[in-house]
C-alpha cells in the first residue's frame, strides 16, 4: 500500500486511511446487519452465522476488518478457517453515524 494511503497510529503500527475515514455511506446493508448483531453479544462478539444459520460471507468479515469496524478476537482451534471477531470502537462510531443519518 502506498505511503499516502497509510496512517501512522500510536504504537508504531500503520492503518489504511479507510479505517480513519469511517463513512456510513461505505457501510453496506449486509455489513451493517452483521455489525449490529454484535451489539447484543457479550464482549461484542460478532456472529459466525446469520439469523437463518448460513455462514457469514468471508468477504463481509474481511471488509469490516479492513475498514477497522471489526477485529479478530481469537483463533478457533477446531475450525481455524473461521475468523472470530468482535466490534471495535470505530464500529460503534460508524453504526451511530449511520443511525443518525437515517433519523435525519
Reading the helices and strands in chain order gives: EEHHHEEH
Low-confidence stretches: 1-22
User: How would you describe the shape?
Assistant: globular
CATH topology: Arc Repressor Mutant, subunit A
Which class best fits the helix and strand makeup? alpha+beta
CATH class: Mainly Alpha
* Computed Rg: 14 Å
The main sheet orders its strands as 1-2
CATH arch. level architecture = Orthogonal Bundle
Percent of residues in helices comes to 25-40%
Number of discrete domains: 1
Number of strands: 4
How is this structure best described in words?
This protein has 104 residues and is of the alpha+beta class. The protein has a single domain (23-103), classed as Arc Repressor Mutant, subunit A (Orthogonal Bundle). It is built from four helices and four strands; from the N terminus they run ββαααββα. The chain has helices at 17-20, 29-38, 58-67, 89-103; strands at 6-8, 14-16, 70-75, 83-87. The protein has a two-stranded antiparallel sheet with strand order 1-2. A hairpin with a 5-residue loop joins strand 1 and strand 2 (14-16). The longest helix has 15 residues, at 89-103. It is globular, with a radius of gyration of 14 Å. The protein starts with 5 loop residues before the first strand and ends with a helix. Residues 1-24 are annotated as: Disordered.
In short:
With 104 residues, this protein is an alpha+beta fold. It is 38% helix and 16% strand. The chain is built from four helices and four strands, in the order ββαααββα.
Amino acid at each position: 500500500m502506498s505511503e499516502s494511503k497509510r496512517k501512522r497510529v500510536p504504537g508504531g503500527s500503520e492503518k489504511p486511511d479507510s479505517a480513519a475515514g469511517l463513512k456510513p455511506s461505505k457501510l453496506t446493508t449486509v455489513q451493517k446487519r452483521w455489525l449490529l448483531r454484535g451489539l447484543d453479544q457479550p464482549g461484542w462478539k460478532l456472529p459466525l452465522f446469520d439469523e437463518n444459520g448460513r455462514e457469514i460471507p468471508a468477504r463481509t468479515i474481511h471488509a469490516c476488518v479492513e475498514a477497522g469496524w471489526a477485529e479478530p478476537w481469537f483463533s478457533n482451534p477446531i475450525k481455524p478457517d473461521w475468523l472470530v471477531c468482535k466490534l471495535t470502537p470505530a464500529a460503534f462510531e460508524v453504526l451511530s453515524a449511520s443511525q443518525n443519518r437515517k433519523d435525519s
